[in-house]
Amino acid sequence: MTLAAFSVQNFGAQAQEPRRGGTIRFTAPYAASFVSNDSHVSNQIQDDIYGKALHRSLYNWDSANNKPVLELAKSVEVSADGLVHTFKLRDDALFHNGRKMVADDIIWTFTRLMDGSKSYPAARYVRLLKGAIDVEKGQAKEISGLKKIDDFTLEMTFTERTEPGFLFNAATTSIYPAKEAQAPDFFNKPIGLGPFKFVEHVPGSRMVFERWEKFYKPGKPYADKLVISPMGEAAARDVAFRNKEIDVSILGPTQYVAYKADPNLSKGILEVAEVFTRNMGMNPGFKPFADKRVRQAINHAIDSELIIKRLVRDKAYRATGWLPLSSPAYDKAMQPYDFNPEKAKKLLTEAGYPDGFEFEWTATPNESWGMPIVEATIPMLAKVGIKVKVKPVEGSALGGIVAKGDFQAYIWSNTSGPDPLTAMKCFHSATPQSACNYTTYKNPTVDKLLDEAGTTGDVNKRLDLVKQANAIVYADAPVWFFNYNKAVLAYQPWLHGLQPNATELALQYFEDLWIDASSPAAK
Amino acid sequence: MLPYVFKRLLQAVPILLAVAALVFVMFSVIPGDFASTQSSDGRSVIDAEAVARMNMQFGLDEPVHVRFGKYAAKLLTLDLGTSFRTRQPVVNSLSERIWPSLQLAMAAMLFAIAFGVPLGFLAALKPGGWVDMQSMVVAVSGLSLPQFWLGLMLMYTFALLLGWFPSFGYGDGNPRYLVLPAVALGVAPLALLARTTRAAVLEVMNADFVRTARAKGNSEVRVMRWHVARNAAVIVLTTLGLQFGSIMGGAVVIEKLFAWPGIGSLLVDSVSLRDIPVVQACILLLVLFFLIVNIIVDVLCALIDPRIKYS
């Protein structure tokens, strides 16, 4: 289901026998530094990147089939009511000190994540386990929903029907060695279950790893060494990539055009429809936006195709609803709002705004979903009588502003996957604005569909219910459906084994990557 | 001299407290807080309950004056607090970053002194001459070129085209990694030093005591070394001290561009994540560094020129 495009050359390379040895020189493109050596404290994707080398979680993301898969367990049995999950854990997963992972390590890790005095970001996932909230509030020391049957059998009881694969696959839920992780100097040299062992961290410059010989996947990882350099500056990454100092680089719209036009660089481009929907959220507390016809008019008034083509340089897919192309509930039959200013004018007249109105639009400087996009829409909206007053804000302030409802309209890129039900729950009236129902959307039919989807054990039925909810939200247009992100990764010709990860293309499973002899770091 | 140094150090305390208060107030009034930055990239959502818990944990739910009181009290005991994002003492983060920042600042300053002072001196020897004209071009360019752009151009030319230096990173102590960021950071101070040196030398060369020295039959080399250079050095040294401020400020851009693991890149990340204790500590450290450098400069000026008396 993932819409990914490998170049022909890379597919050819996949067929080669993987080569052992050498150094993979990866980049973390979202900041100048990693937050810390403790993967539990940060939910930034930047830290997930090194987390995939050092750690493992109960589940992992299968990029090829676009779904979560068991990682630290061999099998799972689910009770008829969907609340109790019994995991048969791997008995061959060794921490980097050689000790076997057991059920106690998972129990300790999840209990740590619920430490109410620490506010670990993954607490929101673990909180669905029975008794987890009691630990968070300091009313219990153990999570009653976690029960060790034996060293390699673990029972989890949830408070509601859920798919734990969507909860426990990120580095924020990495399983730590229970006893060792309590040592005071553990995070100076952390150990995990991942394919690479920690060697050193020079904050702001690099994190270095070496192969873990006893990794549970035979023959993997292939590379001897892995160096991950945080490089938040796209231009600097570009020079380093062209200079063959790094093996991968995430591309922005401008670089995407340049790389595609270059006969050599264009051979190594991986494109994926990521699970993000770029949108303009409209606050129904601002009178005109309370009317569905006004919101629909905005969707008709903006020529999204043109903006995607000219401004976003085709580094996006036109949105046809909230759920993106890579979602298992994506509905191919959905069509985008057509660019139709006449229809927009008609809808505005029907809504009582024949002369249009003025609104304030909160936007960050982001080139793909911020100020440049807003500026492009201003003349389009003006043609139907809508005036825009731009309110610029800094990127890190947007989340707080939107969560508090302190806006008339905002433009943002929000996660809309990989779990379609979780993504659509942001349009459930019970979801507070401070969580993710930013447009305070309320539709009893959508609520009913989502509630039913949450209780059914039939996967296909659940997807169908979610699709229906998505279609209603689309028609109600609480947002301007702009585009789905197309993530683009440039890679060197000697790097093989990249995965089209729709949850975040920069997240790669390093045990599957290998470099051929033509790499400058092949030895 | 020692009482003077001690007095200057004491004077630094209220300056640091004033800076701390200013930074504190600024980060209290600008939009955004640590909890809300957790979802600022739109990837993950964070509910109000979690935000409230975080704010309580980090003391952000208290009134500004209470928070500042607690912060100032801690600061007086040299406790810089705990980082919101790493949950570790701020001093740990700083200690990892000080040495790379010092390396970069010193290298940039050495570059600026090594090229800026001789260029200014040579320009002053023949005002309006070829060297003087060239020094003007260097000065105007060096002061007007944006550091970010200059850094990229250096990367492009000396890493990509010529392959002489690596384009980014810290390396394993190999000075090759230091060259490009140090040059990018040092060009602006070089330009200013060149112009300051030129002006200082010209001024001293026209002074009465230089004319007297020449009239007494001193050789030109001796006049330049003992009378011109020594007297001009005071002005140049003072400029040098002030330039450390711009060096440390420029490091914020350059360190991020070259993936250099210093205080600058730590500061950038901490600002964007609203990790206020780290931001405050970084700024205080930069201010303290600037103050100390200027005290050292004052002492050196007094040693060079006995007419300068500090009391």
Automatic annotation (TrEMBL), chain A:
InterPro entries: Peptide/Ni-bd, SBP_5, SBP_5_dom
GO biological process entries: peptide transport
Domain Solute-binding protein family: 67-431
Name of one Pfam family that matches: SBP_bac_5
Compartments, record wording: Periplasm
SUPFAM superfamilies: Periplasmic binding protein-like II
Main location per the UniProt record: periplasm
Signal peptide: none
An example molecular function term from Gene Ontology annotations: peptide transmembrane transporter activity
Superkingdom of this protein's organism: Bacteria
GO cellular component labels: ATP-binding cassette (ABC) transporter complex; outer membrane-bounded periplasmic space
Similarity section: Belongs to the bacterial solute-binding protein 5 family.
Record protein name field: ABC transporter substrate-binding protein
From TrEMBL, chain B:
Cell compartments where the protein resides: Cell membrane
Entry keyword Transmembrane helix: yes
Residue span, ABC transmembrane type-1 domain: 98-297
Name of this protein: Glutathione transport system permease protein GsiC
Native source organism of the sequence: Bosea vaviloviae
Pfam families: BPD_transp_1, BPD_transp_1_N
Top-rank lineage group of the source organism: Bacteria
Regions crossing the membrane: 12-30, 104-125, 137-165, 177-194, 232-258, 278-304
Upper lineage: Bacteria, Pseudomonadati, Pseudomonadota, Alphaproteobacteria, Hyphomicrobiales
Gene Ontology terms: biological process: transmembrane transport
Residues of the signal peptide: none
